[in-house]
Amino acid sequence: MTSSVTVPKIRIRNLSKSFGNNQVLRNINMDVPEGTSFVIIGGSGSGKSVLLRCILGLMVPDSGSIEIDGKNIFDLSHSQRDEKLEQMGMLFQNAALFDSLPIWENVAFALLYGHRKKHKTITRLEAHEKAFRVLELVGLDPERVGDLYPDELSGGMQKRVGLARAIVSKPEIIFFDEPTTGLDPIMGAVIDGLIKACVDKLGSTAIAITHDMASAQRIGDQAAMLYQGELIWQGQADKLLEADNPYVHQFTHGLRHGPIKVETKIEIKGQGG
Ligand SMILES: Nc1ncnc2c1ncn2[C@@H]1O[C@H](COP(=O)(O)OP(=O)(O)OP(=O)(O)O)[C@@H](O)[C@H]1O
User: Fold this and answer.
1) Name one Pfam family in it (predicted).
2) N or C: which end of the chain has fewer CB within 10 A?
3) What is the pTM of this model?
4) Nearest alpha-carbon partner for 225 in 234, 217, 212, 216
5) Residue 247, pLDDT above cutoff 70
């Protein structure tokens, strides 16, 4: 009889990271199954970005392992790690577009300038056509915006361009860093819908970090909460608001009172919550 064991796309074990006396990640364990969207929530300074940087291989942890497709990324050679990085797409918090490049070239950046061999032979014309197709996919009119520069677009449009750039190489893993920050609630919902649609269409595995509960529930299949560097809760994203963990409850409901203490310089009187 054969037993089939499914290897998670991303598997993190006993991951810890400190900066001097500041222990930022404490013994993190987490599995992200292939094709699922995993959302990490947590307050400011809880370690979300550091965790993301470690998974991207941009920061080396003090201990623990991060396996992608069953291989510890810290055991790979530089070129193997670069290859893994090129299977990943990333939508940064502020879209992080190159101001000096037109929109289409921002979208096609990985195709034109990435290291992956299969893209080396792409012509500018092919890259241009591909960028136009992906811009359409994220709901932008390529004829109208393709030759503009980032500062000529609104924040919501820039996020769409950032999403187009993140998916242009059909990455196996996509990271979203605060995808709805700075957007109005309706545009936030639109971007979340696009993210979900793109991830589903590509069959990618996604990791998103966010403070935005509505966004976490729209994007995520699974969710986890980081608090002071520890993953204190993991479960289904649609159960976040009902979680009976008091830290998760306080955070997801935005309550001032609870186990999470936030220092303020002024005393706020009255109003419960
Ligand atoms: N390169 C670094 N050197 C020293 N300390 C760092 C470095 N990067 C992060 N930290 C520290 O790690 C802690 C967690 O930071 P991190 O950026 O991961 O928080 P976060 O949860 O992403 O917060 P936010 O939601 O505000 O972006 C903070 O105390 C921060 O000062």
Assistant:
1) ABC_tran
2) N
3) 0.88
4) 234
5) yes
